[in-house]
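Minimal example, chain plus cobalt (II) ion.
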Amino acid sequence: MSNLQLSRAATAAAQAPPEGPIKIHGPEAFEAMRRAGQLAAQALDMLVPWVKPGVSTQRLDDLVLEFALDHKATPAPLHYRGFPRAICTSINHVVCHGIPSSKPMREGDMLNIDVTLIVEGWHGDTSRMYAVGQLNRRAERLIDVTYEALMRGIAAVKPGHTVGHIGAAIQTYAESERCSVVRDFCGHGLGRVFHDRPNILHYGMDGEGPELKAGMLFTIEPMINLGKDTVKVLADGWTAVTRDRELSAQFEHTVGVTATGCEIFTTSPGGFHKPPYTIA
Ligand code: MF3
Ligand code: CO
Ligand code: CO
C-alpha cells in the first residue's frame, strides 16, 4: 500500500496492527495468489501500448476496469477507504496513490501504475514504472535504481531472515546510489485481506522486525526518491508527493515465502519488467 501513512496516528490505527499473528498460508492459497498475481501483472502488460503522449490516466483506469470485469476480477482500490478510482497513477514527483484524471500524459513523463485485482477473493498487488516517450537520464537512472532495489529486497526473503533484512537490502543499495527511501509508506501482508500484517518497511537493519516464515504472503514496494525522502499528502487526501518536488519511482511485487526463498506471483507474463518496454 504503499498504503497507509505510517507516521500518522489516525491512519496507522486504521491499518493492521503491527502485533498479533501473521497468517501462514498453505498450497491452495499459493495457487490462488498465483492466479490473482498473474492477472494483475497481465493488466499492467495490457497497458504498455496505451502509455503515450496525449492519453489520459483516466483512460488507463477505464481500461483496467474493463479488463477486470472481463476476467471476473474486482479492482481492490475502487472505493477502498474512499479512493475514487480502480488504479493508482503516480506521475513524476508523485510518490504514490495518484488519482487517475482526464489530464493527458506528456512526452518525458514517467509514471507508476499500481494495479490490485481481487480474484476469487485473493489479492494480487503489483506496480511498475512506465515511460511516456523518451525520458531524461536522471529519470532513467532512478527507475533502474528502484527496480534493482525491489529485486534486492526480494532476494533477501527467506525463512530465518526478518522483515528487517528486506529493508536493509533496499536501503543499503538505494543510499549507495545517492537516492533516498520513502519512510511514510510500506509494503504489507495480503491474501484475502488487502492490507494485513506484517508491515514491510523498505529501510532498517538485518534482524529487526518479525521473522519470515514459509507461507507468509506480502508485498514489497519501495518508493525511491532522487532528492529527500520527505513526503506530503495533497488536499485530495490521497496524492502523496515529494516535498522537494524531485522525482520518485516505485515498483511492487506480491510474493509468498517458500522453504528456500520466495515465489514472485506478479512477474510480467510479457516480459515487461522495467522500461523501456519494446513491443514486438
Ligand atoms: N495498490 C496500493 C498498494 O500497493 C494500494 C492503493 S491504496 C488505494 O498497496 F486506496 F488507493 F487503493
Ligand atoms: Co501494495
Ligand atoms: Co499496489
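Residues 130 and 240 are 18 Å apart (CA to CA). The first helix runs from residue 9 to 14.
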